[in-house]
Amino acid sequence: MSQHKIITNSEIKPILFNLLKVFDRICRENDIKYSLCGGTLLGAVRHKGFIPWDDDVDVFLTRENYEKFCTVFHKYKKDNNIDLLNYYRRGYYATFAKMIDTRTFSSENSRNEKLGVWMDIHIIDRMPTNNIDFYKRLIRNINEIRYFGSNKYFSTSSKNRLIVILKRSIKKIVRPFKKRKVRKDIETFLKNNKGSKEISFSFGNKLSFWCNMENLNFDDLINLNFEGIDVMCIKKYDQYLTAKYGDYMTIPKPEDRILHDVETRYWKKK
Predict the structure, then answer these.
(1) What are 95-126's pLDDT values in tens digits?
(2) Please, which residues have CB within 8 angstroms of residue 225's CB and are 6 or more apart in sequence?
(3) Bridge partners, residue 36, by sequence
(4) Is 259 helix (H, G, I), strand (E, B) or coil?
């Protein structure tokens, strides 16, 4: 890795900010509704931009808007040095999408992916909230995706070279098959289990969090300032942020600040 230049902490946020600007432009030019979410929305409300110790960007949008985004994305891909990863892409195992800066890459993470600098794109579906068995099975499928996408899947401590080669070969065959099966199960759930609450299955066992609001209403958004540009946000951001963070306008003590454990990122050689 010594031949590649490490992306410094001071370079991360400008790259993320550019990704957000490109994402916002794609959405506005194609009448696609989205909202900041998580710590990025909190940053817009409390800091008018990034939370000082944060190092990622999160947005969410309804499945209809997400699918529209996917159909127009190819027109913007080359000129903006971006790519879109979702669980239809070979070798990518997260249950939500990422828009990445293709000028960058990273050391391999636990899922054996080299992603570089990215922003997370979470998909919202309307789901029922009273079917406990439904959620248990859905969460089990999500965790299964995460597991067989990790380096723990078919891991072996054997020193027998033939066993190691056999397990690696099986993994290459089984991972894609298992991924397709779980993806089909999830899509069947989404199609046949409509409800009134808006949730995202992007967050594994935190899925129940998205059940605390009847309607995030992506048809009626507001603009908030984020590092000097207008970005789309849900009007009910106070209700959303209160549910997620409690007294969200109070800045937490240094020891209570949540930091992301991100692998080293690099610039690709030109």
Answers:
(1) 789 999 999 988 655 444 567 899 999 888 77
(2) 44, 48, 49, 231
(3) 59
(4) coil
* CATH 3.30.460 matches 9-127+195-267: yes
Q: Which of 76, 72, 73, 75 is nearest to 85 (CA)?
A: 73
Q: Where are the alpha helices (DSSP H) in 48-128?
A: 63-77
Q: What does DSSP say about strands 118-127 and 58-62: parallel, antiparallel, or unpaired?
A: parallel
CA 106-60-202 angle, to 5 degrees, is 65
Residue type, 244: K
| pLDDT digits 0-9 by tens, 19-54 | 999 999 999 999 999 999 989 999 999 999 999 988
Angle at 26 between CA 22 and CA 28, to 5 degrees: 115
Tokens found for residue 193:
């289990």
Residues 6+ apart with CB under 8 A from 208: 135, 199
DSSP SS3 for 124 = strand
0.90 surpassed by pTM: no
Instruction: Report helix, strand or coil for 130.
Output: coil
